[in-house]
Amino acid sequence: MSTERDSETTFDEDFQPNDEVVPYSDDETEDELDDQGPAVEPEQNQVNKEAEENREPVRKECTWQVKANDRKYHEQPHFKNTKFFCIKESKYAYNAFTFLPMNLFEQFKRAANFYFLVLLILQTIPQISTLAWYTTLFPLLLVLGITAIKDLVDDVARHKMDREVNNRTCEVIKDGRFKVAKWKDVQVGDVIRLRKNDFVPADILLLSSSEPNSLCYVETAELDGETNLKFKMSLEITDQYLQREDALAAFDGFIECEEPNNRLDKFTGILSWRKTKFPLDADKILLRGCVIRNTDFCHGLVIFAGTFTIIVVLILLSAGLAIGHAYWEAQVGNYSWYLYDGEDATPSLRGFYNFWGYIIVLNTMVPISLYVSVEVIRLGQSHFINWDLQMYYAAKDTPAKARTTTLNEQLGQIHYIFSDKTGTLTQNIMTFKKCCINGQIYGDHRDASQHNHNKIEQVDFSWNTHADEKFAFYDHYLIEQIQSGKEPEVRQFFFLLAVCHTVMVDRIDGHLNYQAASPDEGALVNAARNFGFVFLARTQNTITISELGTERTYNVLAILDFNSDRKRMSIIVRTPEGNIKLYCKGADTVIYERLHRMNPTKQETQDALDVFANETLRTLCLCYKEIEEKEFAEWNKKFMAASVSSTNRDEALDKVYEEIEKDLILLGATAIEDKLQDGVPETISKLAKADIKIWVLTGDKKGSSLLHTRMENQRNRGGVYAKFVPPVQEPFFPSGGNRALIITGSWLNEILLEKKTKRSKILKLKFPRTEEERRMRTQSKRRLEAKKEQRQKNFVDLACECSAVICCRVTPKQKAMVVDLVKKYKKAITLAIGDGANDVNMIKTAHIGVGISGQEGMQAVMSSDYSFAQFRYLQRLLLVHGRWSYIRMCKFLRYFFYKNFAFTLVHFWYSFFNGYSAQTAYEDWFITLYNVLYSSLPVLLMGLLDQDVSDKLSLRFPGLYIVGQRDLLFNYKRFFVSLLHGILTSMILFFIPLGAYLQTVGQDGEAPSDYQSFAVTIASALVITVNFQIGLDTSYWTFVNAFSIFGSIALYFGIMFDFHSAGIHVLFPSTFQFTGTASNALRQPYIWLTIILTVAVCLLPVVAIRFLSMTIWPSESDKIQKHRKRLKAEEQWQRRQVFRRGVSSRRSAYAFSHQRGYADLISSGRSIRKKRSPLDAIVADGTAEYRRTGDS
Fold first, then answer.
1. Is 674 helix (H, G, I), strand (E, B) or coil?
2. Which residues, 6 or more positions from 119, have their beta carbon under 8 angstroms from its beta carbon?
3. pLDDT tens digits, 720-761
4. How far apart are CA 404 and CA 414, in angstroms?
5. Which of 88, 326, 457, 1176 is deepest in the core (most CB within 10 A)?
6. At a CB cut-off of 8 Å and minimum separation 6, what does 331 contact?
7. The sheet that has 426-437: what strands, in order across it?
8. CA triple 639-641-646, angle to 5 deg
9. Do 388-425+677-705+738-753+784-869 and 432-449+456-676 share a fold?
């Protein structure tokens, strides 16, 4: 068995998935994979046959057509069924005229409502029913009315939300001019204008903008949760000719592109304009939901615009009693002249009638009020979540929101949480915390004399006019080193941070504003700025730095850009003195491989990296080298040749980069904190104590993943990467110890056999010719499916044995797949939480989806079941609201079944004394109002307000949550206990009054043993018993609970005396037939003693069992309740232990994760604002000019 399992999980050693690359796109087809490969783009003006053939694979995908400024073109039939992304269309169930009929139709499509409608129809048949029709009609109307009101409120809310979105405005060209239009009026082919901070209403092609060369900055938080800005750039042709309003109105371009899909990073299309074809890619597309930033205005063309049940018990009981009635009729009824009713029906026919009669009489085992009561409780619990001020985020004015009412109790049963990282666990705010320069660590609390102290005193940066006021640093000794200049490496360290980057800069109100491709890079440049090395400006081939107040301009000779394979970036500059230097920063793993062998601080820096890794800081190594003029000249020729290479350009450039990036001198390392949201460590700790496992599924690189150092530690010890799998019968790890699993998207595809392999065209056209071939192919397919399923199960089993699981570089589809696998093989309740559109699949796949609202966007929120602004609120949602909701619903269901079994089964016992004739043991009006008025309010309040312990104690003792995970409070055992309790109570309620009424005489000398007095006695004992029983079940007493219990009893007696009065009998003689029964029966002490005895026999055993249970076998909740006064009296809780970050023997990996492309952008000069003299003169001369005397 071991061999078989090992063979299933053996990988090709020659193939190693790239951990840094996101796997293929979610909906990439095998045809697309086959077509991948280098392709030479034909010249734009070439229209011959060869060019058309070269474009054929692209055009094959381009089935969507857009014609600019031509709405009639898109009124063709094949466009009619397309929902354009600019319009939010919801399914509105009703309008003002169709609400009542359609709502009733929808409600009666529900099995429960249709069931009671059938019962109501049966009750109108005299031969069947012994129960008045109104006993079912009134509760049914109440349920239908409450549900209709709820549906109406929901539909109105949807209308309001959609109107808010669709009524947003933008400027659209109409009649040759820009006019304000609503989003819902925007159509495909429209040319629109968007301004700064506007939401993009549809997927549009960027045509031009206010920025030089039509650059446009966008924030994609709505889509992927990342708040760092990304740039888009139009085609040069549209930037040149489509700036003016009249030119945009006359634009008649024709676009052929791919159909709308869910790929955020891929787009294929062709623009045909001015008799020329221009290729389009994702860099020229603004996606719906993005926000325009730092761009005054832009113009765009709209491309895409909008099993065992109680019913079985009921049937079995009814069938048994019907058979009993048929037998009784055959043996007794046919021979009793006084029972003759004028109909000569056979015993079998009478038994058939009585079967349906008992279906009607016993239907209250599952009353219709159960469904509406559950909905009311869930609605109330949802409002409690909405009203919880401790889940309200004042900084963003964002309250918690329950967007569903059906999942509250499942919040108390969560086993696995799947979380995004960026924007969900972190604030996506990078902070420069520490650094190591020349082997010396800086960043601790030290004064200028290098003495550590406990007093926290922030460094004063007032000497630096460009300093950021929000930047906080506490090591005064580093400032002393910079200002004194005793160690040149310190200044060179921060100079490297100021010069080696691809950050853009502009000025807003005289203040510098940096735009970085990643938060990491922005944090590093901002740190250099505060320490006196300020990045001021850049052009296509220069960069200007203020070095401790002195402005110096350097010639940029080359930018060696970052990519996921290189894991580093470099810049080559010429200093004003004419020297050529290379500055490089990157991951420690790649930098150490390229260092000169004579690096005296190499070991000290490595030790510092280990220290930073233990604190889970994101690290980066810095180094430099001086280059001789001759060496650079030779290298530059190779660089220019690779830059214009028409095939494999990226590979050629990487090869050239390798030649120059060697023999580097190590300066030190930086340590950045990816700042967690407030309360995240405490929340994770408490959820772990509640036995909830948290998996992090992120699209980020492995190096930037939260808790990465712990994962690397486990990897180095050889147990995490799933290259082998132990036998099925054995656990994957020995018992004891905490383990973590890290896996990338590429490895995930390998392990789960999800990788799409290339197949030859010949195989695709080959079909089985014989039955044997068909059988062999079928068997092969089945074996492959079985192997895949076993792989999936093995992965889930292995991952679930780990304390922490992190999946990096995974696509949205893979996130959903991981969640689905856990649902499938673990049968556990899952919760997914995220903040961006890339988390939507995961959120929808999990049983419960939670969206983080606020600055990261609303896409995830709109798809979620619950939303709030901070991850830390998750502990309150689960440990307080979830646990309470689960306990309340379980108590409610147990009690509801108990009280209805006790009520309904009295008819069963009564049938043995009435010839199984389906006669009722109560008055008809009592049956009608029992579940509506006499016993409804106390159980509703218990379902809404009850709590075993307070919210503070729930958070203090997370172990209380485990009862919900194990479903200990409502299962088959608990259900049958409630069933047995109800059966015993019904027997006591029937047989004690029956025995008391035999051979008795009242005070007036008359026997009180008539049917109506007997019914009143049982009903009175029942109402008192079930209401006192809920008092025993209530853990949290309030005035409202007490009032509801005693008020329900009082209401029963008040209504009963009213319904039994002579006055109402005169008005409705056929409906109210118990005239004077209550007053006659209840004035006799004997009847009251019977009622008291019945109630006592029902409740005293329950009290005794509860006392013994809490004394001998107390639950965790019972123990805490016993000591709650002492716990409440404590002035302060025990101080929370400081959350200690994980220790690792492996330094953290590369934290530099911006996208490739800024270097090409800078080198092209298209993103640089044209500067005026004297900078132009400086660039022309190729020299730097000192603004003031001084040397750094």
1. strand
2. 136, 359, 360, 363
3. 333 333 334 455 555 556 777 888 877 887 777 665 544 444
4. 17
5. 326
6. none
7. 440-442, 426-437, 665-676, 618-627, 580-586, 568-574, 550-560, 542-547, 533-538
8. 120
9. no
Contact of 301 with 278, CB cutoff 8 Å? no
> Is 588 a residue of the active site?
no
Residue 499: predicted pLDDT: 93
Contacts 24+ apart (CB under 8 A), 1133-1142: 1133/952, 1133/956, 1136/682, 1139/681, 1139/682, 1139/685, 1141/614, 1141/615, 1141/616, 1142/614, 1142/616, 1142/707, 1142/709, 1142/710, 1142/713
Residue type, 752: L
CA distances in angstroms from 767 to 291, 568, 772, listed in the order given? 51, 49, 12
d(C-alpha 5, C-alpha 577), whole Å: 66
Reduce the secondary structure of 1106-1120 to three states and give it as a string: HHHHHHHCCCHHHHH
* DSSP 8-state assignment for residue 593: H
Q: Are 56 and 781 in contact (CB under 8 A)?
A: no
907: left (phi over 0), alpha (psi -120 to 50) or beta: alpha
Q: What would the DSSP string read from start to end of 1018-1074? A: HHHHHHHHHHHHHHHH-SS--HHHHHHHHHHHHHHHHHHHHHTSHHHHHH-TTT---
Q: Which two tokens stand for residue 263?
A: 């790929």
Q: Which residues touch 330 (CB under 8 Å, ≥6 apart)? A: 347
**Residue 428 · residue 518 · CB < 8 Å:** no
Task: Kindly report, residue by residue over 992-1025, the tens digit of the pLDDT.
Answer: 998 888 766 655 556 566 888 889 999 999 999 9
Confidence at 534, pLDDT banded by 50, 70, 90? very high
Going by the annotation, the residues of the binding site for ATP are 420-422, 521, 562, 585, 618, 698-700, 809, 815, 838-839
Instruction: Supply 497's token pair.
Output: 């941070």
Nearest to 1020 by CA among 1010, 1012, 1030: 1012
**Residue pair 530/464 in contact by the 8 Å Cβ criterion:** yes
**What residues are designated binding site for Mg(2+)?**
420, 422, 835, 839
Residue extents of the structural domains in the chain: 87-167, 388-425+677-705+738-753+784-869, 432-449+456-676, 883-1113
Backbone angles phi, psi at 674, to 5 degrees: -80, 95
Distance of CA 56 to CAs 35, 59, 261, 688, Å? 11, 5, 21, 55
CATH code at 388-425+677-705+738-753+784-869: 3.40.50.1000
Structure tokens at 865: 């079941």
Question: What is residue 765's predicted lDDT score, i.e. its pLDDT?
Answer: 45
Give the residue ranges of DSSP H helices in 690-811: 708-716, 745-751, 761-765, 771-800
Residues tagged in the binding site annotation: 420-422, 521, 562, 585, 618, 698-700, 809, 815, 835, 838-839
pLDDT 10s digits, 72-89 = 777 666 554 444 444 333
Among candidate residues 420, 475, 674, 865, the one labeled active-site is 420
Q: Is the pLDDT of residue 543 over 80?
A: yes
Q: What is the largest CA-CA distance in the chain?
A: 130
Beta-strand runs (E) in 281-409:
285-286, 291-293, 297-304, 401-402
Which backbone phi and psi does 682 adopt, to 5 degrees? Answer: -65, -40
Q: Judge contact between 112 and 368, C-beta under 8 A.
A: yes
What gap in Å lies between CA 92 and CA 95, rounded to an integer?
Answer: 8
pLDDT at residue 1050 is higher than 90: yes
Task: Give one DSSP letter per residue of 24-73, joined into a string.
Answer: S-TT--HHHHHH-S--PPPPTT--SHHHHHHHHHHHTT--EEEETT-TGG
Q: Where does 167-226 have alpha helices with state H?
A: 221-224
Length of the chain: 1192
Mean pLDDT of 934-956: 90
Report, at the CATH architecture level, how domain 432-449+456-676 is classified.
3-Layer(aba) Sandwich (3.40)
N-term to C-term CA, the chain: 70
